[in-house]
Structure formats: C-alpha cells, structure tokens
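Lab notebook page, bench 4
Experiment: in silico fold of construct C2
Operator: M.H.
Input chain length: 292 residues
Purpose: comparison with the prior construct
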Amino acid sequence: MQTRRTWITEDEVAAMFPDRDPSAHKGNFGHSLIVAGKKGMMGAALLAAGGALRSGCGLVTCHVPVGERLAMQISHPSAILSLDSNDCFSEFPVNMARFTAVCVGPGLGQAPETAAALGRLLESGLPMVLDADALNLISSNPEFFSRIPPDSVLTPHAGELERLLKAAVASSVIRGCCNAEENLYDEEKRTGMVKALSLATGAVIVVKGHNTMVCAPDGSLSINPVGNPGMAKGGSGDVLAGFMAGLLARGLSARDAAVAGVYLHGLAGDKAAAAIGEESMNASDILDFLRI
C-alpha cells in the first residue's frame, strides 16, 4: 500500500500569512541567525542571508569569518554581522538568547573545529534549518542526531539524504531497515525510512528535488507542485534554507515553514524561468523573485 501524499496549495500557504498589525515593529517578527560560509565559500552565506531577508522576519544576523565580512556588508546592509575569529565556524555569537531560529550549514565546510561548534550549537535548543555541510557533519557524527532541537527542519538533496539514512540505520537511530542500501533504491521503502527518521528526530525533513517532499514527524507527506529544472543550480538550496529559517524565526511551525518555504521558493523559480529562461537562470535570480 502506497503512502498517501497531499499537494501543497496556494490557499494553504496564503493562510499562514495573515495581515500585519499596523502597529507592529521588528521585534514582533523574530530574529534569524545565519551560520554559514568559510574562507573562500561566502557565496552560499550570501544567498542564505538573502533568503532570510526575504522571509519577513524582523532581524537577520549572519555569523561569518571575520576575514569574509566585507562581502556580506556590501551585499546585505540590512543584515547584522557576528564575526568568527577563525576562517570557519568555530565559536558562537554573543548572547544566543536574542535569536528565535537558526540556519546552519551553507558553505560551512567540515573542519574539526566546525564539527565541534555544530555539536554545541545543536544543544542551544533553538529551532534550526540544518542544510548542506551541517547535514554532512551529522552523518559523520551520528551522536548529533539526538541533539537536533525540536521544531527543526532538515533539507537534504539526494546525496545528503543517502548519507543521512545510512548513518541513521548504522547507528540504530532508525530501526527495521536492515538493508539500507536496497531500501534507498525503492521509492516507497526510502520514503518509509524518511518518515522513520523524522519521527525519531522530531524534525521535519525536506527531500529536495522534482516535486520536493515535506515529511513531518506525524507521518504526513506534502508535495510541492511548483518549481522547474532551471532551479537545479548551485545555491538554490542556500536561498531556500535561509528563507525557511526566517519563517521559523517569525513564528511558523517547522512544518508550516517547510511547506511555505518550498512552495514560495518554487514560485520564485518559476517566475525567474519565465523572465530569464531555465538554462540561464541561477540562484540569485530565484532570490530576486522571492515574495510572500
């Protein structure tokens, strides 16, 4: 028997964004922290920060290596900077209590000091969007699975998902999947493993690709009907990760942030393709068309 999937709809997403109170101020819409980039890998951090700034959250702080700060200051003057004294993520911003959600992973690298810092960051308890190298570090350090905070979102593409599921099976985070290799090549069995991992970690899992799937811990599966092959370019996922972290920061649940995030990101991709063409569009074009 196949798992039931439901399509994300425009009305479903629109209902997540009621009109703003005319007397609202930036403090009413949360504070997103973007932990991204290392020396020579700031493009991912810039795209993630841009996504967060399009989310409607009140404040965005970007934690980046001190030597790479100029690119962020020039590209996103609306973002607050938090500077790491190392060439990669190795230390925390001051006063973590001011943040309401975190995006961690784009362009982060997998240095030992970054792995150690990620392990400590997971223990902060803040809801997180875990993307890119954050996912790879979890796969390499399976003890991190149990530290994933409640109401978090994991955003793997196919390769990252394969590594996560193999690590989860090997470390008994998920059980009943004795032949992980075989299950990965059967769509229904792979979906079952994703549902098991979502239940075990309490995190929403966004399986990126054609008709991106959002899997919630309750077993529900939501499928994104929008988007196009022109989005299959480096950096598209970084925009999505930052955008979803901003939605989390402003108070959406993990599932709603994931559902709204992939839908609105897909719509932006479709608008970019219409304006520029699938072949020529790139991740920064998605950012330019991203709207709520």
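Observations: The domain at 28-286 is CATH 3.40.1190.20 (UDP-N-acetylmuramoyl-L-alanine:D-glutamate ligase). The first helix runs from residue 10 to 14.
Next step: discuss at group meeting.
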